[in-house]
Amino acid sequence: MKKILTLLFICIIININAATDWKLVKDKQGITVYSLQKPNHKLKHFKGHYHINKNAETILAALQDTSACSQWVHNCISSELVGVTNVRIRTYHTIIKSSLWLKDRDFYLQSNVSYDPQEKLFVISLLSKPEYGKETKDNVRVQQVEMIWSLKYLAEEKTLVTYQIYIDPKLPIKAINHKMIQDSIFETLVGLRNIVQKPIYANKKYTKAELKLLVED
Fold first, then answer.
1. Predicted TM-score (pTM) above 0.70
2. d(C-alpha 119, C-alpha 214), whole Å
3. Where are the domains of the chain?
4. 137: how many CB neighbours lie within 10 A of its CB?
5. 39 contacts: CB under 8 Å, gap ≥ 6
6. What is the pLDDT of residues 19-49, one digit of tens each?
7. Regarding the domain delimited by 2-214, which CATH topology (the fold level of the hierarchy) does it fall under?
8. Alpha carbon of 166 to those of 128, 139, 191: distances in Å?
9. Cα(first)–Cα(last) distance of the chain, in Å?
């Protein structure tokens, strides 16, 4: 099981470099964004990656700070931790500002954090749980969301961040959905790059015992 994270990371890198599969759609400020239309999926998958001059633990601390969502996640109105299963598994409720005149979107995500000590790799996978909470008249519940964050150690203060997402925001035109997702990945990575500079995250260090709890059996 411990090899699963390593294989996942290798697959991410292979896919990024496979021009026949993934199409480069944006390359700006050191951030590259790719898209891929997979069979049996209504919309495209998107991924972006970027080298951040911070250690992975600092970045993970920022990713798990739900109170800061609106400060760096593109169009995030709020994010709230609503359930903790164990040290690795948490559930979040997030509200995203919608485009144009449409209602805002909301979704529940279950997050699973794992660590591979050999590769020095954190993987945060998030999967939608649309039935977790009641829908409200103010928001449109997004049913399909799949996200993967990977934080790969490169050097003492350098981490390769990869962010992959499949989401159906339920906007009326496919091209609008794709433009929104593409912009969201880019702007979110820009926001992450900025927020990890805050001193509040700089001192986060996991002990060996804490990291062991995140290792796959």
1. yes
2. 14
3. 2-214
4. 6
5. none
6. 458 999 999 999 999 999 999 899 999 999 9
7. Alpha-D-Glucose-1,6-Bisphosphate; Chain A, domain 4 (3.30.530)
8. 10, 20, 19
9. 6
